[in-house]
User: Which sequence fits this backbone?
Protein backbone atom coordinates (compact mmCIF):
# COMPACT_ATOMS: atom_id res chain seq x y z
CA UNK A 1 0.00 0.00 0.00
CA UNK A 2 2.90 2.35 0.67
CA UNK A 3 4.00 2.14 -2.97
CA UNK A 4 0.47 2.77 -4.28
CA UNK A 5 0.25 5.99 -2.30
CA UNK A 6 3.22 7.35 -4.25
CA UNK A 7 1.60 6.95 -7.67
CA UNK A 8 -0.46 10.14 -7.88
CA UNK A 9 2.27 12.65 -8.75
CA UNK A 10 3.83 10.40 -11.39
CA UNK A 11 0.52 9.37 -12.98
CA UNK A 12 -0.12 13.01 -13.90
CA UNK A 13 3.08 13.00 -15.97
CA UNK A 14 2.84 9.63 -17.72
CA UNK A 15 0.47 7.68 -19.95
CA UNK A 16 -2.00 4.88 -19.30
CA UNK A 17 0.41 2.10 -20.36
CA UNK A 18 2.94 3.29 -17.82
CA UNK A 19 0.18 3.36 -15.19
CA UNK A 20 -0.86 -0.22 -16.00
CA UNK A 21 2.71 -1.49 -15.83
CA UNK A 22 3.24 0.42 -12.60
CA UNK A 23 0.22 -1.18 -10.99
CA UNK A 24 1.31 -4.66 -12.06
CA UNK A 25 4.87 -4.21 -10.82
CA UNK A 26 3.66 -2.64 -7.59
CA UNK A 27 1.42 -5.62 -6.85
CA UNK A 28 4.34 -7.94 -7.55
CA UNK A 29 6.54 -5.93 -5.21
CA UNK A 30 3.86 -6.02 -2.52
CA UNK A 31 3.75 -9.81 -2.82
CA UNK A 32 7.54 -9.91 -2.57
CA UNK A 33 7.42 -7.75 0.55
CA UNK A 34 4.89 -10.12 2.12
CA UNK A 35 7.25 -13.03 1.39
CA UNK A 36 10.18 -11.15 2.93
CA UNK A 37 8.07 -10.29 5.97
CA UNK A 38 7.09 -13.93 6.44
CA UNK A 39 10.72 -15.05 6.24
CA UNK A 40 11.71 -12.37 8.75
CA UNK A 41 9.08 -13.67 11.18
CA UNK A 42 10.43 -17.21 10.73
CA UNK A 43 13.95 -15.95 11.43
CA UNK A 44 12.88 -14.08 14.55
CA UNK A 45 11.03 -17.17 15.79
CA UNK A 46 14.40 -18.99 15.83
CA UNK A 47 15.99 -16.41 18.13
CA UNK A 48 18.06 -16.72 20.15
CA UNK A 49 20.21 -19.14 18.20
CA UNK A 50 22.39 -21.56 20.10
CA UNK A 51 25.95 -20.40 20.61
CA UNK A 52 27.47 -22.70 17.97
CA UNK A 53 25.04 -21.66 15.22
CA UNK A 54 25.52 -17.99 16.10
CA UNK A 55 29.28 -18.40 15.84
CA UNK A 56 29.17 -20.25 12.51
CA UNK A 57 26.79 -17.76 10.88
CA UNK A 58 28.79 -14.81 12.18
CA UNK A 59 32.04 -16.30 10.87
CA UNK A 60 30.48 -17.05 7.48
CA UNK A 61 29.02 -13.56 7.21
CA UNK A 62 32.46 -12.03 7.79
CA UNK A 63 33.93 -13.98 4.89
CA UNK A 64 30.91 -13.93 2.58
CA UNK A 65 30.25 -10.21 2.93
CA UNK A 66 33.81 -9.02 2.43
CA UNK A 67 34.59 -11.49 -0.35
CA UNK A 68 31.48 -10.66 -2.37
CA UNK A 69 31.32 -6.90 -1.86
CA UNK A 70 34.93 -6.54 -2.94
CA UNK A 71 34.67 -9.01 -5.81
CA UNK A 72 31.83 -7.00 -7.32
CA UNK A 73 34.36 -4.16 -7.57
CA UNK A 74 37.09 -6.34 -9.14
CA UNK A 75 39.07 -7.63 -6.16
CA UNK A 76 40.95 -10.79 -7.24
CA UNK A 77 41.36 -12.62 -3.91
CA UNK A 78 39.73 -16.05 -3.81
CA UNK A 79 37.21 -17.09 -1.18
CA UNK A 80 39.92 -19.16 0.50
CA UNK A 81 42.43 -16.30 0.46
CA UNK A 82 39.78 -14.05 2.03
CA UNK A 83 39.13 -16.52 4.84
CA UNK A 84 42.81 -17.09 5.58
CA UNK A 85 43.42 -13.33 5.62
CA UNK A 86 40.45 -12.24 7.74
CA UNK A 87 40.16 -15.16 10.16
CA UNK A 88 43.81 -16.20 10.49
CA UNK A 89 45.78 -13.13 9.39
CA UNK A 90 47.61 -15.13 6.73
CA UNK A 91 48.56 -13.89 3.27
CA UNK A 92 48.54 -16.83 0.89
CA UNK A 93 48.78 -17.40 -2.85
CA UNK A 94 49.06 -14.79 -5.55
CA UNK A 95 47.32 -11.44 -5.50
CA UNK A 96 47.83 -7.72 -5.71
CA UNK A 97 48.99 -6.09 -2.49
CA UNK A 98 46.18 -3.55 -2.89
CA UNK A 99 43.59 -6.34 -3.02
CA UNK A 100 44.84 -7.78 0.28
CA UNK A 101 44.87 -4.29 1.85
CA UNK A 102 41.39 -3.49 0.51
CA UNK A 103 40.02 -6.74 1.94
CA UNK A 104 41.43 -6.04 5.39
CA UNK A 105 40.13 -2.46 5.27
CA UNK A 106 36.71 -3.77 4.25
CA UNK A 107 36.54 -5.84 7.41
CA UNK A 108 37.59 -2.83 9.52
CA UNK A 109 34.82 -0.83 7.84
CA UNK A 110 32.29 -3.58 8.55
CA UNK A 111 33.25 -3.60 12.23
CA UNK A 112 33.08 0.19 12.36
CA UNK A 113 29.57 0.09 10.91
CA UNK A 114 28.44 -2.59 13.37
CA UNK A 115 29.87 -0.64 16.30
CA UNK A 116 27.97 2.45 15.15
CA UNK A 117 24.75 0.43 15.07
CA UNK A 118 25.44 -1.02 18.53
CA UNK A 119 26.14 2.41 20.01
CA UNK A 120 22.47 3.37 19.80
CA UNK A 121 20.10 5.08 17.40
CA UNK A 122 21.91 8.35 16.92
CA UNK A 123 20.88 10.17 13.73
CA UNK A 124 22.86 9.34 10.60
CA UNK A 125 25.45 11.99 9.69
CA UNK A 126 27.50 12.80 6.62
CA UNK A 127 30.57 12.65 8.83
CA UNK A 128 29.94 8.98 9.59
CA UNK A 129 29.69 8.16 5.87
CA UNK A 130 32.90 10.07 5.16
CA UNK A 131 34.69 8.31 8.04
CA UNK A 132 33.48 4.97 6.72
CA UNK A 133 34.91 5.87 3.33
CA UNK A 134 38.23 6.94 4.82
CA UNK A 135 38.40 3.59 6.62
CA UNK A 136 37.85 1.67 3.38
CA UNK A 137 40.35 3.65 1.29
CA UNK A 138 42.82 4.30 4.16
CA UNK A 139 44.66 7.14 2.41
CA UNK A 140 44.75 9.28 -0.71
CA UNK A 141 46.34 7.66 -3.74
CA UNK A 142 47.12 8.58 -7.33
CA UNK A 143 45.66 6.84 -10.37
CA UNK A 144 47.58 6.95 -13.65
CA UNK A 145 45.90 6.57 -17.04
CA UNK A 146 47.31 6.28 -20.56
CA UNK A 147 45.50 8.39 -23.16
CA UNK A 148 45.58 7.94 -26.95
CA UNK A 149 48.84 9.16 -28.43
CA UNK A 150 50.95 7.93 -25.55
CA UNK A 151 49.97 10.76 -23.22
CA UNK A 152 49.78 9.87 -19.52
CA UNK A 153 47.43 11.59 -17.12
CA UNK A 154 46.85 11.20 -13.41
CA UNK A 155 44.42 12.19 -10.69
CA UNK A 156 44.17 11.79 -6.92
CA UNK A 157 41.57 9.63 -5.20
CA UNK A 158 40.70 11.29 -1.89
CA UNK A 159 39.90 9.13 1.14
CA UNK A 160 37.01 10.44 3.22
CA UNK A 161 36.36 13.47 1.01
CA UNK A 162 33.66 14.06 -1.55
CA UNK A 163 34.76 14.00 -5.16
CA UNK A 164 36.61 16.89 -6.75
CA UNK A 165 36.18 15.73 -10.35
CA UNK A 166 33.16 14.42 -12.29
CA UNK A 167 32.54 10.67 -12.34
CA UNK A 168 30.51 8.48 -14.67
CA UNK A 169 30.14 4.87 -15.75
CA UNK A 170 29.95 3.14 -19.12
CA UNK A 171 26.94 0.84 -18.90
CA UNK A 172 26.95 -2.73 -20.21
CA UNK A 173 25.15 -1.33 -23.27
CA UNK A 174 27.98 1.09 -24.04
CA UNK A 175 26.24 4.27 -22.87
CA UNK A 176 27.88 6.83 -20.64
CA UNK A 177 25.93 7.57 -17.47
CA UNK A 178 26.89 10.63 -15.43
CA UNK A 179 26.54 10.92 -11.67
CA UNK A 180 26.10 14.12 -9.68
CA UNK A 181 28.73 16.79 -10.28
CA UNK A 182 31.26 17.72 -7.58
CA UNK A 183 29.39 21.01 -7.17
CA UNK A 184 26.03 19.27 -6.61
CA UNK A 185 27.33 16.55 -4.32
CA UNK A 186 27.49 18.30 -0.89
CA UNK A 187 23.90 19.55 -1.14
CA UNK A 188 22.58 16.23 -2.46
CA UNK A 189 24.31 14.31 0.33
CA UNK A 190 22.83 16.72 2.88
CA UNK A 191 19.41 16.07 1.34
CA UNK A 192 19.98 12.30 1.45
CA UNK A 193 20.99 12.22 5.11
CA UNK A 194 18.19 14.60 6.15
CA UNK A 195 15.65 12.55 4.19
CA UNK A 196 16.88 9.31 5.77
CA UNK A 197 16.65 10.62 9.32
CA UNK A 198 13.16 12.02 8.73
CA UNK A 199 11.95 8.86 6.93
CA UNK A 200 13.28 6.64 9.70
CA UNK A 201 11.46 8.67 12.33
CA UNK A 202 8.22 8.76 10.37
CA UNK A 203 8.03 4.99 9.89
CA UNK A 204 6.78 5.59 6.35
CA UNK A 205 8.93 2.80 4.94
CA UNK A 206 9.75 -0.72 6.04
CA UNK A 207 13.47 -1.28 6.81
CA UNK A 208 13.86 -3.15 3.51
CA UNK A 209 12.25 -0.33 1.51
CA UNK A 210 14.31 2.26 3.39
CA UNK A 211 17.57 0.40 2.71
CA UNK A 212 16.77 -0.09 -0.99
CA UNK A 213 15.80 3.53 -1.53
CA UNK A 214 18.85 4.84 0.33
CA UNK A 215 21.09 2.55 -1.74
CA UNK A 216 19.63 3.77 -5.02
CA UNK A 217 19.69 7.47 -4.14
CA UNK A 218 23.24 7.20 -2.83
CA UNK A 219 24.47 5.44 -5.98
CA UNK A 220 22.93 8.14 -8.19
CA UNK A 221 24.98 10.73 -6.31
CA UNK A 222 28.20 8.65 -6.28
CA UNK A 223 29.74 11.13 -3.84
CA UNK A 224 33.27 9.72 -3.78
CA UNK A 225 35.85 9.12 -6.49
CA UNK A 226 36.13 5.44 -5.59
CA UNK A 227 34.48 2.96 -3.22
CA UNK A 228 30.87 4.04 -3.75
CA UNK A 229 29.49 0.53 -4.28
CA UNK A 230 31.19 -0.78 -1.16
CA UNK A 231 29.84 2.13 0.89
CA UNK A 232 26.33 1.59 -0.51
CA UNK A 233 26.34 -2.07 0.55
CA UNK A 234 27.69 -1.19 4.01
CA UNK A 235 24.95 1.39 4.42
CA UNK A 236 22.29 -1.15 3.42
CA UNK A 237 23.40 -3.34 6.32
CA UNK A 238 23.69 -0.34 8.60
CA UNK A 239 20.01 0.42 7.95
CA UNK A 240 18.83 -3.18 8.26
CA UNK A 241 20.80 -3.77 11.47
CA UNK A 242 19.50 -0.53 13.03
CA UNK A 243 16.02 -1.97 12.70
CA UNK A 244 16.75 -5.45 14.01
CA UNK A 245 17.01 -7.17 10.63
CA UNK A 246 19.85 -9.59 9.83
CA UNK A 247 22.55 -8.22 7.56
CA UNK A 248 22.70 -9.44 3.97
CA UNK A 249 25.29 -10.27 1.32
CA UNK A 250 24.96 -9.07 -2.28
CA UNK A 251 26.54 -12.10 -3.94
CA UNK A 252 29.00 -11.62 -6.77
CA UNK A 253 27.30 -14.45 -8.70
CA UNK A 254 24.27 -12.14 -9.02
CA UNK A 255 26.30 -9.08 -10.00
CA UNK A 256 24.77 -8.78 -13.48
CA UNK A 257 21.23 -8.96 -12.09
CA UNK A 258 22.13 -6.38 -9.45
CA UNK A 259 23.56 -3.93 -11.96
CA UNK A 260 20.74 -4.52 -14.45
CA UNK A 261 18.13 -3.77 -11.78
CA UNK A 262 19.88 -0.48 -11.02
CA UNK A 263 20.09 0.27 -14.75
CA UNK A 264 16.38 -0.38 -15.31
CA UNK A 265 15.53 2.02 -12.51
CA UNK A 266 17.92 4.58 -14.02
CA UNK A 267 16.00 4.34 -17.30
CA UNK A 268 12.71 4.79 -15.44
CA UNK A 269 13.84 7.83 -13.48
CA UNK A 270 16.00 9.47 -16.13
CA UNK A 271 19.58 10.69 -16.34
CA UNK A 272 19.25 13.87 -14.27
CA UNK A 273 21.29 13.30 -11.07
CA UNK A 274 18.94 15.43 -8.96
CA UNK A 275 15.95 13.25 -9.89
CA UNK A 276 17.94 10.10 -9.13
CA UNK A 277 19.01 11.48 -5.76
CA UNK A 278 15.36 12.14 -4.88
CA UNK A 279 13.84 9.01 -6.44
CA UNK A 280 10.62 7.49 -5.13
CA UNK A 281 9.87 3.84 -4.35
CA UNK A 282 7.68 3.74 -7.43
CA UNK A 283 10.55 4.95 -9.58
CA UNK A 284 12.98 2.33 -8.30
CA UNK A 285 10.52 -0.58 -8.40
CA UNK A 286 12.82 -2.61 -10.66
CA UNK A 287 15.67 -2.30 -8.19
CA UNK A 288 13.33 -2.73 -5.22
CA UNK A 289 12.05 -6.02 -6.63
CA UNK A 290 15.59 -7.31 -7.06
CA UNK A 291 16.65 -6.03 -3.65
CA UNK A 292 13.75 -7.82 -1.97
CA UNK A 293 14.72 -11.04 -3.75
CA UNK A 294 18.24 -10.68 -2.32
CA UNK A 295 16.86 -10.15 1.19
CA UNK A 296 14.53 -13.14 0.80
CA UNK A 297 17.34 -15.38 -0.46
CA UNK A 298 19.65 -14.38 2.39
CA UNK A 299 16.94 -14.88 5.02
CA UNK A 300 16.10 -18.32 3.60
CA UNK A 301 19.79 -19.29 3.73
CA UNK A 302 20.13 -18.18 7.35
CA UNK A 303 16.92 -19.98 8.36
CA UNK A 304 17.94 -23.22 6.62
CA UNK A 305 21.42 -23.06 8.13
CA UNK A 306 20.05 -22.41 11.61
CA UNK A 307 17.58 -25.29 11.40
CA UNK A 308 19.87 -27.89 9.83
CA UNK A 309 21.27 -30.38 12.33
CA UNK A 310 22.90 -32.96 10.06
CA UNK A 311 26.73 -33.06 10.02
CA UNK A 312 26.46 -34.31 6.42
CA UNK A 313 25.06 -30.99 5.15
CA UNK A 314 27.71 -28.44 4.14
CA UNK A 315 27.57 -24.85 2.89
CA UNK A 316 29.74 -22.59 0.76
CA UNK A 317 29.30 -18.89 -0.08
CA UNK A 318 25.71 -18.78 1.09
CA UNK A 319 24.53 -21.96 -0.62
CA UNK A 320 23.98 -25.56 0.42
CA UNK A 321 26.41 -27.89 -1.34
CA UNK A 322 24.71 -30.67 -3.27
CA UNK A 323 27.04 -33.66 -3.12
CA UNK A 324 27.01 -36.28 -5.85
CA UNK A 325 28.46 -38.83 -3.45
CA UNK A 326 27.73 -39.47 0.23
CA UNK A 327 31.45 -39.93 0.79
CA UNK A 328 32.17 -36.24 0.07
CA UNK A 329 30.74 -35.08 3.39
CA UNK A 330 32.77 -37.74 5.18
CA UNK A 331 35.96 -36.50 3.49
CA UNK A 332 35.24 -32.88 4.44
CA UNK A 333 34.52 -33.76 8.05
CA UNK A 334 37.67 -35.90 8.28
CA UNK A 335 39.84 -33.03 6.98
CA UNK A 336 38.05 -30.55 9.24
CA UNK A 337 38.83 -32.68 12.31
CA UNK A 338 42.38 -33.59 11.31
CA UNK A 339 44.25 -31.21 8.99
CA UNK A 340 47.17 -33.66 8.76
CA UNK A 341 45.12 -36.64 7.62
CA UNK A 342 46.62 -38.68 4.76
CA UNK A 343 45.02 -39.88 1.53
CA UNK A 344 45.11 -43.45 2.84
CA UNK A 345 43.35 -42.44 6.08
CA UNK A 346 40.75 -40.50 4.11
CA UNK A 347 40.15 -43.59 1.98
CA UNK A 348 39.60 -45.68 5.06
CA UNK A 349 37.22 -43.23 6.73
CA UNK A 350 35.15 -42.59 3.60
CA UNK A 351 35.05 -46.21 2.56
CA UNK A 352 36.31 -45.59 -0.99
CA UNK A 353 39.60 -46.32 -2.77
CA UNK A 354 42.45 -43.81 -2.93
CA UNK A 355 41.85 -43.06 -6.62
CA UNK A 356 38.26 -42.00 -5.82
CA UNK A 357 39.52 -39.94 -2.89
CA UNK A 358 42.02 -38.09 -5.10
CA UNK A 359 39.35 -37.41 -7.72
CA UNK A 360 37.00 -35.91 -5.16
CA UNK A 361 39.80 -33.85 -3.62
CA UNK A 362 40.64 -32.40 -7.04
CA UNK A 363 37.00 -31.48 -7.61
CA UNK A 364 36.63 -29.88 -4.18
CA UNK A 365 39.87 -27.94 -4.64
CA UNK A 366 38.69 -26.64 -8.02
CA UNK A 367 35.39 -25.48 -6.51
CA UNK A 368 37.21 -23.75 -3.65
CA UNK A 369 35.87 -25.95 -0.87
CA UNK A 370 39.35 -27.05 0.30
CA UNK A 371 43.00 -26.17 -0.10
CA UNK A 372 46.17 -28.14 0.61
CA UNK A 373 48.91 -26.07 2.19
CA UNK A 374 52.58 -26.29 1.32
CA UNK A 375 53.23 -28.41 4.41
CA UNK A 376 50.60 -30.92 3.29
CA UNK A 377 47.90 -29.89 5.78
CA UNK A 378 44.31 -29.43 4.64
CA UNK A 379 42.23 -26.29 5.09
CA UNK A 380 38.47 -26.62 4.66
CA UNK A 381 36.62 -23.50 3.50
CA UNK A 382 33.18 -25.11 3.26
CA UNK A 383 31.19 -25.05 6.50
CA UNK A 384 29.37 -27.88 8.21
CA UNK A 385 25.90 -27.30 9.65
CA UNK A 386 27.05 -28.30 13.14
Assistant:
Amino acid sequence: MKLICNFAAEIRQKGSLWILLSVILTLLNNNSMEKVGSLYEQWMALQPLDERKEYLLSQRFTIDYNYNSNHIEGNTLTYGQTELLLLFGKVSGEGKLKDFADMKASQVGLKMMMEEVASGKMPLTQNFIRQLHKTLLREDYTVYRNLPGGIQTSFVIHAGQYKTRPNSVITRYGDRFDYASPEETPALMADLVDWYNEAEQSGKYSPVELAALFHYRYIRIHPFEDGNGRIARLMVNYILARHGWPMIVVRNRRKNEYLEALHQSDLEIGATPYKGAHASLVGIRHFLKHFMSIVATELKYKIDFAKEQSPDVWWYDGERINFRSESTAKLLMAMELDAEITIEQLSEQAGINTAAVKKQLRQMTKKGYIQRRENGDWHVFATSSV
